[in-house]
Amino acid sequence: MPAGEGAKNMETVLTVAGRLLELGADRNTPLIALGGGVVGDLAGFVASIYMRSVPFLNIPTTLLAQVDSCLGGKTAVDLPAGKNLLGTFYQPKAVFADLKFLETLPAGDFRNGLGEIVKYALLDAEFFSELEASADGLRRGDQAVLGNVVERSIWIKKGIVEMDEHDQGIRRILNLGHTVGHAIEAESGFAIAHGEAVGMGIAAAIRLSERLHGFPAADRRRTEALMDRADLPVKIPAAMRAEALVGRLSADKKKEGRSVRFVMLRRIGLPFVNGGIAEDVLIETIEEMKR
After folding, report:
1. DSSP string, 195-258
2. pLDDT average, residue stretch 208-232
3. Does residue 81 share a domain with residue 141?
């Protein structure tokens, strides 16, 4: 399939399903995803609906996919209105994450995974401190550091997903940074990579947490310093209209009624789900973050 978020759509799904039929694939034919998050999301979605489901194996080859999207069972494709609006919960039979694949990544693709890693660090204060100590080694691609970071991220997500597989409660904290992040990604026409958009979304979430829920300024500065060391953006492009981003939230799949749920932080390691944020507060915060 073509590379990139632009191919994660129903047209590609139909192409893949048609090719499977041509090849004589049946209900016992395993579908293997070999690639990054887009490939895993789309292959998992096809596996969940082709002939009412076929076995699915995931071999993630990017940092973002290895630390986040390869496990948890969420599959999806995009619609013009936003990301991941069509999807299923469908678990792979197995996931194989090999760090050797990461040696092949361009710098931008490697950096794309760092946003999700910072997210996990904000959910676990001990991991955050470890990441502060090892951030330089992580950026260099040190294998020992990478191994620890990938494993810690996987175990954090695994523990949360096992408590709430279908995203009805605690699993929602894994959306930290993704509400505004997905809006930025979609508004850019997917020119801004997922990990960088999540980084901007995290920066927005911690500013909103500081403003509304007493997130300590010292924790915000620590987070922004860590993101800077990871070469992740903490500013939103000046050309991006705040009203347009807020408008994108109306199509967010995390919306309930007219309220969009945001993941906030009381401090590093203490996330919670907020019932909604006033539109004027969102617009003001986004405007303050523009570079």
Report:
1. HHHHHHHHHHHHHHHHHHH---HHHHHHHHHHHHHTT---SB-TTS-HHHHHHHGGG-TTEETT
2. 95
3. no
Burial of 3 by CB count in 10 Å (0-12 exposed, 13-18 middle, 19+ buried)? Answer: exposed
Q: How far apart are CA 18 and CA 213, in angstroms?
A: 51
CB 125 within 8 A of CB 269: yes
Q: What is the CATH number of the domain that holds 205?
A: 1.20.1090.10
pLDDT per residue over 18-64, tens digit each?
999 999 999 999 999 999 999 999 999 999 999 999 999 999 999 99
CA distance 245 to 110: 26
Domain final residue pick, 76, 105, 134 = 105
Looking at 50, 74, 105, the residue that finishes a domain is 105
Distance (Å, whole) CA 236 – CA 181:
10
Q: Supply 147's token pair.
A: 């191994």
Q: Supply the angle between the helices 107-123 and 143-163 in degrees, to the nearest 10.
A: 50
Confidence of residue 258 (pLDDT cuts 50, 70, 90): low
Tokens (6 digits) for 3: 């590379």
